[in-house]
Amino acid sequence: MNIIVTSLFVQDQDKALEFYTEVLDFVKKHDVPTGEFRWITVVSPDDQEGTELLLEPNQHPAAKEYQKKIYADGIPATMFEVPDVQKEYERLMKQGVKFTIEPKEVGDITLAIFDDTCGNLIQIVQK
After folding, report:
1. What is the pLDDT of residue 19?
2. Contact 118, 19 (CB under 8 A)
3. Could you tell me the sign of the dihedral formed by the alpha carbons of 33, 39, 45, 51, in that order?
4. Residues 109/65, Cβ–Cβ less than 8 Å
5. Quick check: helix, strand or coil at residue 13?
6. Dist. CA 18–CA 118, nearest whole Å
7. DSSP characters for 42-69?
8. Cβ proximity of 54 and 43 under 8 Å
9. Helix/strand/coil percent split, the chain, to 5
10. Most distant CA pair in the chain: distance in Å?
């Protein structure tokens, strides 16, 4: 069994697609109309056949509440691995990304957390 798609609730699909492709450099894999919303997935440019991240609208009241509460508590909605957290931090800072936690070592990893502008905190880690 393999994980093929994982969801991330977003407040605005267009804004999320722009952020995840133009700022984070993911690649759009699917963008299919599904009525009022779209099935939009992005993938890592290094593994375009790998796990897809679904930019899912947070229209359900439970999704909105969940997203708001974990954000308010400073909990990242998901985590991405990068080869060098410090370099990625500097690259994203140049693009105006707001970090809530600057790079720091925690045990065997280095991490940082940023705001994706779509209602989520995202953690990047270097193992």
Report:
1. 98
2. yes
3. negative
4. no
5. helix
6. 10
7. EE-TT-TTS-EEEEEE--SHHHHHHHHH
8. no
9. 25, 40, 35
10. 46
Q: Is 124 within 8 Å of 88 (Cβ atoms)?
A: yes
Structural domains of the chain, with CATH: 5-126 (3.10.180.10)
Alpha carbons 44 and 13: distance in angstroms, whole number: 18
Q: Considering the entire predicted model, what is its pTM?
A: 0.95
Q: Is the dihedral of CA 75, 111, 4, 33 positive or negative?
A: positive
Q: What is the pLDDT of residue 91?
A: 98
What digits encode the pLDDT tens for the residues 60-89? 999 999 999 999 999 999 999 999 999 999
Supply the DSSP symbol for 21. I
Question: For residues 48-76, b (16+ Cβ closer than 10 Å) or e, as one string?
Answer: eeeebbbbbbbeeeebeeebeebbeeeeb
- Return the pLDDT at 12: 97
